[in-house]
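Hi everyone,

Forwarding the result from last night's run.
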Amino acid sequence: MPSPHLLLWTGLALMGVFAVVQVVRHPGPVFWWMVKSAVLGCLFVLAVNWVGQYVHYHLPFNPMTAMAAGLLGIPGIAALIVLHLWLYA
């Protein structure tokens, strides 16, 4: 029986190959989807900072937080807030 690590890495490799194939086959829609996600992520982070100024909370604004917020949406924002509070409390 294959080890669980082998199965995990095989699954991740297959997902990576699938993502690359999609980008190569349809570069336009994937590019615009990434741009839309980044813009929404920026807006989400700015909204958190705008509301956070009343409770003295600031979420760092950088490309990583914007992309995480854009790709994951509201759960991504919640995860960023929890991680920020956990790591920098």
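The chain is about 80% helix and 0% strand.

Cheers,
N.
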